[in-house]
Amino acid sequence: MHDDYVLLVAGVPGTGKSTLSRLLSSELGCTVYETSELAISLGVAGSDPTGRYTSVLSPEGVEIVARALVNASKRGCVIASTVYPESLLDFMQSSTLAVVLLRLDPRILERRLEGRGWPRPKVLENVVAEALNYYHEALWDHRHYVFEVDTTGRSPLETLHIILDLLCKWKPGFRVDWLKDESLVELVSSWLGELDLHNNWLPERGSVE
């Protein structure tokens, strides 16, 4: 590995991006950035008009965040935790060494997000995205440097060792497909039906990720 690179750690909320980013930073000697926090510090994060307790970025805002990460990598390697790697890659592909894509069994993810006190529709949106393998399509054009890791039942340190092994041996690829589990397919159908009941939901204002 050269010194001036960006390593994106991606996945839906609750898959362990922040923890693994810190562990990778310690192991590789890189600086860690949370892209959502970076966007706020750069003044490019706006309020979601749907009221979904989250921040949104315009294409211009994504580019500003991407350029900031690239500039930071010129001073040494960068680990960036993000939920929208495909958007960042439009502006920083040549500076990105790899994308580490973290996955988690959607049933466990549901409980984890509920534990954060999130509104039920927001939990459902993220759980369905995970169950339907959203990032496979979003990152397909970059699959030759996407390293997908199932974190289910593994400690952060165990996951770290798997990631480092895959990177060192350079074994990219998509390795998870939740839809192979027929029982989960039925559950996804029920989640989609429940989510449809919350169409156009507007939760009370609050400060949730």
Structure description:
The protein is of the alpha/beta class and 209 residues long. It has a domain at 6-104 and 139-177: P-loop containing nucleotide triphosphate hydrolases (Rossmann fold, 3-Layer(aba) Sandwich), CATH 3.40.50.300. Helix content is 47%, strand content 15%. The chain is built from 9 helices and 7 strands. The chain has helices spanning 17-28, 35-41, 59-73, 85-92, 106-114, 120-131, 134-138, 156-169, 182-197, and strands at residues 6-10, 31-34, 46-47, 55-56, 78-82, 96-103, 146-150. The strands form 2 sheets. The protein has a 5-stranded parallel beta sheet, sandwiched between helices. The chain is globular. Mean pLDDT is 90; it is low at 201-209.
- The Cα radius of gyration reads 17 Å
Helix content: 40-55%
Number of helices: 9
Category from helices, strands and their pairing: alpha/beta
Number of E-type strands: 7
DSSP strand content: 5-15%
Mean pLDDT: 90
CATH class of the domain at 6-104 and 139-177: Alpha Beta
The shape is globular
Strand order of the largest sheet: 2-5-1-6-7
Report the CATH architecture of the domain at 6-104 and 139-177: 3-Layer(aba) Sandwich
Instruction: Give the SSE string.
Output: EHEHEEHEHEHHHEHH
Measure the end-to-end span. Answer: 33 Å
For CATH, the homologous superfamily of the domain at 6-104 and 139-177 is named as P-loop containing nucleotide triphosphate hydrolases
Main beta sheet: strand number and arrangement? 5 strands, parallel
Model regions low in confidence, pLDDT < 50 over at least 5 residues: 201-209
CATH topology type of the domain at 6-104 and 139-177: Rossmann fold
